[in-house]
Amino acid sequence: MSHTAQHEGNSKGPFDDLLVIDLTHVLNGPFGTTILCDLGARVIKIEPPGHGDDTRTYGPYVGDKSLYFSFVNRGKESIVLNLKHDEDRAIFLNMVRQADVLTENFRPGTMAKLGFSYEALAEINPRLIYASSSGFGQTGPLSTFPAYDTIVQAMSGIMDETGFPDGPPTRVGTSLSDLCGGVFMFCGIASALYARERTGQGAHVDVAMFDATLAFLEHGFMSYVSTGNAPQRIGNRHPFMAPFDVFAAADKPFVICCGNDHLFGLLCAAIGRPELAADARFATNADRIAHEAQLKAELEAALSRETAAHWLEVIHAAGVPVGPVLNVEEAAKLPQTEARNMLIEAGGLRMPGNPVKISGYPDPRVRTGAPTLDQHGAALREEFSALPSAQPTPPTPQTDIAR
Amino acid sequence: MSHTAQHEGNSKGPFDDLLVIDLTHVLNGPFGTTILCDLGARVIKIEPPGHGDDTRTYGPYVGDKSLYFSFVNRGKESIVLNLKHDEDRAIFLNMVRQADVLTENFRPGTMAKLGFSYEALAEINPRLIYASSSGFGQTGPLSTFPAYDTIVQAMSGIMDETGFPDGPPTRVGTSLSDLCGGVFMFCGIASALYARERTGQGAHVDVAMFDATLAFLEHGFMSYVSTGNAPQRIGNRHPFMAPFDVFAAADKPFVICCGNDHLFGLLCAAIGRPELAADARFATNADRIAHEAQLKAELEAALSRETAAHWLEVIHAAGVPVGPVLNVEEAAKLPQTEARNMLIEAGGLRMPGNPVKISGYPDPRVRTGAPTLDQHGAALREEFSALPSAQPTPPTPQTDIAR
């Protein structure tokens, strides 16, 4: 299924031959389909009449472009379809017949009401990979529970795990559950596509933001399993290693990561406190964990005498892992960010690049921007209005269509 | 490449036919290869002599099993190989010849020093997908900078974005950068495997925890691009919508997510403060953002009179998205977690399940546990000691081997 002219600005990639029909909206689904797009797939975004994807109305804006929308829709084509009207439904079904992948993140049940359940669409295209992303999944008692990122973060336990012992549960400062759901949706699609090469059959991929966030719980979940008690918030320190935390220098904080006794000895020497390595309270990692607050106080007494820049240089030179605490601007301006092509331009806007680097495929610094609403509507209506000659006649839509 | 007896406890999945040689250790790489394993691949974990993967020595423990190790190594086979000794190198190269995927997360340059660069291994197996995961990537000035999760969180900006305006930068309460790197490594592998079906060629996948975390920065990165200033920490509230935050009830906090004026009106009515919806300070979302602190005070004055459980029922019944703030124990015990099979057992230990649900493949509640050190060593040495008859003779190892 070939690329149209609109798409030729995009890189070639491992998914060059794919046609993706993208019904997802807001952040979670579009984040997943942007990875497909970055890796070469042709992604046609279907938007509802009116203002299209809600995120087109979200700030911040540059000119009339929503950055929120632009970030997760770069490189896609846009067509407005009213999926309750016969003419547009016919175009949609023609797209489905030719598509490799369909993605949707409506509330579970919505697609079936439209007559577009997996079962219905698999009948007209058995090779279709149909990916559903949702807050809590297609099954279970919370399946249709409203699921904004903040709700899923709150209910998964990750908010309770983040923050300081004397502070409140803290939301991860990015829409973590949305993004986890999106990237795992991509994982499911890519896996099902690989399997299709063997089986010739499509599949239904069902990914939940909630499940995806649980998979990211890691040590907190394991501690609960081990002790039967929920883990406590521990701020910036490591649960099992010390010193492994943010420390205050004279001017600002920085990070020291000492994973073993050898590194701890090097650290103590580097900061002019070699006697700490011989202190019985700090002899082993277990000792250091047991006396973590005392250790931090001893270290910060020394560290507070010089700037973070000083200590980063001195401690790094001693072979101990350290790093600065950077804000987003500083992170974006790191030479490493440039060298890794992680600050790209799409449609004249700068945004994070594609983290999936694969040899043999270009990783362009300038990518096609996000489409304006219905930008490719006329061309797509023409392309998908006539039935391809090799295809069977269209089926009657399901009788349970919501109108 | 068929499954051995050791593997038959695992589910079948889309990657059933794959042999993965896994040199990754600690968290980041093993998280990625666990997804491959969950989805059916045979994953052989190669561990160094001594105590094997470092995480075998990390708590918490159940009996003699490290939960940390067990979580990200379930279903894998283990063999101890000394990659600097000729006999073990020969076994390793025999594995490589037959493998579909090789994964490693050594510091960049280490594999080349061992004579196992992508180029060297592609010569003996051109179909090999060779995936490198690292802190900062295989290229760029920070390529070999020590990269623990906390350092990458600190340097990516996500720590600076997380937390409250009057508090410090806050580490996400889970090893987010490790996990992001691992899941994007999986994305690269699955994509390259799909492409191999067309090209017959392997590829080198190069994923960095740093890049992966930048891709997760979302609104903070976009705000910086838009305004030229780094975003400020905003605690638990939403950057663009209000009320969309954690609110205090009489007993504990809970989440309300009001994305538009209609929902705001329903909320005000539900909590017995209908006049707030008519208040000029709160008329539109932009007004509510501009008077966010006043709005929160008004809402909490009402909400603090009843319990969170009361408000969750009342506000949910009104059609406004709400949710409890749960700890990990409460999240694990949600009926939804059970219904989605997200609390599984592997090797007698409970842990998060596989969030990638694909129709046509089982999603077993009981999976094979993580291997003991060298558990499959004898069997694997036998399986991979003799050259497969169809394979060419072994190449001479590179001359730059580090010994």
Automatic annotation (TrEMBL), chains A, B:
<feature type="region of interest" description="Disordered">
    <location>
        <begin position="358"/>
        <end position="403"/>
    </location>
</feature>
<protein>
    <submittedName>
        <fullName>Acetyl-CoA:oxalate CoA-transferase</fullName>
        <ecNumber>2.8.3.19</ecNumber>
    </submittedName>
</protein>
<dbReference type="InterPro" id="IPR050483">
    <property type="entry name" value="CoA-transferase_III_domain"/>
</dbReference>
<dbReference type="InterPro" id="IPR023606">
    <property type="entry name" value="CoA-Trfase_III_dom_1_sf"/>
</dbReference>
<dbReference type="GO" id="GO:0008410">
    <property type="term" value="F:CoA-transferase activity"/>
</dbReference>
<dbReference type="InterPro" id="IPR003673">
    <property type="entry name" value="CoA-Trfase_fam_III"/>
</dbReference>
<dbReference type="Pfam" id="PF02515">
    <property type="entry name" value="CoA_transf_3"/>
</dbReference>
<dbReference type="InterPro" id="IPR044855">
    <property type="entry name" value="CoA-Trfase_III_dom3_sf"/>
</dbReference>
<keyword id="KW-0808">Transferase</keyword>
